[in-house]
C-alpha cells in the first residue's frame, strides 16, 4: 500500500446510516415507504409535483438534525492529511462529509441543501421547504426543484470523476449497494485502468466480486481502521 498516492473514494447511503439517515434499499429503507417511480424521476415530478416536493422537503428538514459519524470524521481526517490526490465522490445528497470537515467532496447525485431553478439554471443554497413554490433568489421565478439527480438524468461532474479514476492508484467503495449506475460501474472502470480496488460495506454489495479486497461490517468501524492503515502506510 505504500506505493499509493492518488485515491478515489465512492460513498453511498451506508456511510450515513449510523447517523440516522435511512438507506435506500435496506429493510425499512426509503424505497419501502415510497415507490421510487413515484418520487425520484422527472416524470413523477411532472405528474405530481406536490408529492415529490413534500418528500424532499421532509428529507431536507431531517438531514439538518443529523450529525456526522465516525466514518465521516475518519474520511475528513484522511482528506486533511493525505498529501496525494484524493476525491470523495459521494452519491449521498446530505452534507455530512462537509460537516465532518472534508473538503475534496463531489456530489454526483446532487444536494438536498441546494435548489435548482428551472427558469435560470442557478442552484441557490436552500434549507427551507419548496412546497409553497418560493421565488428563485436569482431570477424571481417560482421554478425551483430539488437539486437531486433523478433516474434517467445525468449524474454531475462525470468528466471529473473519470479523470480522477484515470489518475488513481486506489479506488475504495464505502456503504453502497452497487445497484445504481453509473456509480456501480466505477469498480469495473477502475479495474480496467489497473487501479487497486477495495470495498468497505456492511454486507457484500452487488458488485463485490469485482473488488480486489472486500471487508464487511459497519462503516463506523471499518472506515476509521482503514484510514489509520492507509495513513500509517504512507509514513513508511
Ligand atoms: C452499510 C451500513 C453501515 C447499511 N455501514 N454499510 C439498467 C441497467 C443499468 C442501468 C440502468 C438500467 N435501467 C436504468 C438504468 C440507469 C439508472 C440505474 O442505475 N437504474 C438501476 C436501478 C438499474 N441510473 C440512472 O438513471 C442514473 N443516470 C444515468 O444513468 O444517466 C445516464 C448515464 C449513462 C452513462 C454515464 C453516465 C450517465 C441516475 C441515477 C440517479 C440515482 N438517484 C438516486 C435517488 C436520488 C433521489 C433521492 O435521494 O431521493 O440516488 S437513487 C438512490 O440510489 C440515490 C443513491 O445515491 C443511489 C445509490 O444508493 P446507495 O447509496 O448505494 O444506497 P443503498 O440503500 O442501495 O445501499 C446502501 C448500502 O449500504 C447497502 O449495501 C447496505 O448493506 C450498506 N450499509 N448500513 C456500512 N452502517
What does this structure look like?
- With 236 residues, this protein is of the alpha/beta class.
- It is built from 10 helices and 8 strands.
- The strands form 2 sheets. Strands 3-2-1-6-7-8 form a 6-stranded parallel beta sheet, with helices on both faces. The protein has a two-stranded antiparallel sheet with strand order 4-5.
- Helix 6 runs parallel beside helix 10.
- The chain is globular, with a radius of gyration of 18 Å.
- The protein starts with 6 loop residues before the first strand and ends with a helix.
- The mean pLDDT is 95.
- Ligand BJW binds next to helix 1.
Topology at a glance:
Blueprint: E1 7-11, H1 13-17, H2 30-33, H3 36-39, H4 42-47, H5 49-63, H6 70-81, E2 86-90, H7 96-100, E3 105-107, E4 110-117, E5 144-148, H8 158-167, E6 170-174, H9 186-192, E7 196-201, E8 213-216, H10 219-235
Parallel strand pairs: 1-2, 1-6, 2-3, 6-7, 7-8
Antiparallel strand pairs: 4-5
The protein binds ligand BJW.
Residues 12-14, 17-18, 23-26, 29, 40, 91, 93, 109, 148-149, 151-155, 158, 175-177, 179-182, 201-203, 205, 218-219 line the site of ligand BJW.
Given helix and strand content, the structural type is: alpha/beta
**What's the total number of strands?**
8
Low-confidence stretches: none
Q: Sheet bearing the most strands, described?
A: 6 strands, parallel
Mean pLDDT over the full residue set: 95
Q: How far apart lie the N and C ends?
A: 10 Å
Estimated radius of gyration: 18 Å
Amino acid at each position: 500500500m505504500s506505493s499509493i498516492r492518488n485515491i478515489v473514494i465512492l460513498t453511498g447511503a451506508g456511510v450515513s446510516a449510523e447517523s440516522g439517515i435511512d438507506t435506500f434499499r435496506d429493510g425499512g429503507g426509503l424505497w419501502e415507504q415510497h415507490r421510487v417511480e413515484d418520487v425520484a424521476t422527472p416524470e413523477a415530478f411532472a405528474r405530481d409535483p406536490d408529492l415529490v416536493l413534500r418528500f424532499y422537503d421532509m428529507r431536507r428538514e431531517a438531514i439538518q438534525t443529523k450529525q456526522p459519524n465516525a466514518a465521516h470524521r475518519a474520511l475528513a481526517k484522511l482528506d486533511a492529511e493525505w498529501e496525494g490526490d484524493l476525491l470523495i465522490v459521494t452519491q449521498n445528497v446530505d452534507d455530512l462529509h462537509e460537516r465532518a470537515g472534508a473538503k475534496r467532496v463531489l456530489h454526483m447525485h446532487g444536494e438536498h441543501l441546494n435548489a435548482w431553478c428551472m427558469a435560470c439554471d442557478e442552484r441557490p443554497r436552500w434549507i427551507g421547504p419548496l412546497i409553497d413554490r418560493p421565488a428563485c433568489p436569482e431570477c424571481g421565478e417560482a421554478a425551483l426543484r430539488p437539486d437531486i439527480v433523478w433516474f434517467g438524468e445525468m449524474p454531475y461532474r462525470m468528466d471529473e470523476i473519470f479523470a480522477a479514476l484515470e489518475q488513481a492508484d486506489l479506488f475504495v467503495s464505502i456503504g453502497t449497494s452497487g445497484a445504481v449506475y453509473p456509480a456501480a460501474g466505477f469498480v469495473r472502470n477502475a479495474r480496467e485502468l489497473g487501479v487497486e480496488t477495495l470495498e468497505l460495506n456492511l454486507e457484500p454489495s452487488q458488485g463485490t466480486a469485482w473488488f480486489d479486497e472486500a471487508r464487511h461490517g459497519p462503516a463506523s468501524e471499518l472506515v476509521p481502521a482503514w484510514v489509520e492503515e492507509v495513513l500509517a502506510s504512507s509514513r513508511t
